[in-house]
């Protein structure tokens, strides 16, 4: 498989995280505002990937940043807000809700784009682990090819997630797993788990994802109007 194709595929797969965040966070917005949030999320994700491609090495030298911990915490916030909104019959169209959604999408994009770039850099780097100008060009071209695909597919995927309880629950559970895994992979948590000799962090992340799927399914089935 060519390097460019690998970059495109990984970008599309990882971008499902961003689409899930947009779908869950933007529920209750008017269609116009939800579409604006979708466009902001996708284009901001591309911009951050381009920036992080240059900065990824430097960012990991800032040990106090804990970007995975912050990003995971923000995803947990998204999930809690989503579950709370699903648990009652209401439709929020206020500007406060809209700006909160944009804030959530920005925070999630920062964390997820960094993980995306790390995966892409591992592909385009040469045998010595260095990223040449050719490797950067392949990465940028892969990101550019992915954008129109995401713009076309994201609206369809978001509509499916918002209309079907099972897809809604699976998307929420997937985010729950991603959030837990992100937090557990942070250096601070890794050190803690190592200190207390706790080897089950991956299994715990999966269990959290399954729990979120179950709770989301129950709430979505109880209030199906929330998925409309």
Short description:
By secondary structure, this protein is mostly helical. It has 8 helices and no strands.
List the helices and strands and how they pair.
Elements: H1 3-25, H2 31-59, H3 67-86, H4 95-124, H5 133-163, H6 165-184, H7 187-195, H8 201-222
Helix pairs in contact: 1-2, 1-4, 1-5, 1-6, 2-4, 2-5, 3-4, 3-6, 5-6, 6-8
Q: What do these coordinates show?
A:
The protein has 8 helices and no strands. With 228 residues, it is an all-alpha fold. It has one domain (3-227). α2 runs antiparallel to α5 (133-163) and α3 (67-86) packs antiparallel against α6. The longest helix has 31 residues, at 133-163. The model is unreliable at 89-93 (pLDDT under 50).
List keywords for this structure.
228 residues, mainly alpha, globular
> What is the strand tally?
0
User: Which word captures the global form?
Assistant: globular
End-to-end Cα distance, whole Å, is: 40 Å
Structural class: mainly alpha
Share of helical residues: over 70%
What order do the helices and strands follow? HHHHHHHH
Number of domains: 1
Question: Sheet bearing the most strands, described?
Answer: none
* Low-confidence residue ranges: 89-93
Portion in strands: under 5%
Overall pLDDT, averaged? 77
Radius of gyration: 18 Å
């Amino acid at each position: 498989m060519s390097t460019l194709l690998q970059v495109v595929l990984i970008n599309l797969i990882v971008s499902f995280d961003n689409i899930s965040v947009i779908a869950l966070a933007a529920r209750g917005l008017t269609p116009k505002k939800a579409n604006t949030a979708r466009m902001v999320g996708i284009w901001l994700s591309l911009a951050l990937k381009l920036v992080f491609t240059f900065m990824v090495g430097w960012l990991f030298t800032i040990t106090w940043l804990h970007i995975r911990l912050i990003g995971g915490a923000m995803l947990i916030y998204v999930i809690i807000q989503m579950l709370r909104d699903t648990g009652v019959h209401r439709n929020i169209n206020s500007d406060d809700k809209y700006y909160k959604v944009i804030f959530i999408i920005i925070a999630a994009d920062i964390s997820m784009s960094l993980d995306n770039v790390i995966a892409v850099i591992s592909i385009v780097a040469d045998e010595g682990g260095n990223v040449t100008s050719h490797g950067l060009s392949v990465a940028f071209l892969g990101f550019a090819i992915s954008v129109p695909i995401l713009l076309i597919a994201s609206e369809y995927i978001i509509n499916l997630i918002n209309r079907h309880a099972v897809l809604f629950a699976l998307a929420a559970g997937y985010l729950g797993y991603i959030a837990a895994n992100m937090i557990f992979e942070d250096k601070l948590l890794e050190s803690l788990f190592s200190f207390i000799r706790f080897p089950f962090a991956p299994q715990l992340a999966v269990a959290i994802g399954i729990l979120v799927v179950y709770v989301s399914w129950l709430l979505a089935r109880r209030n199906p109007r929330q998925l409309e």
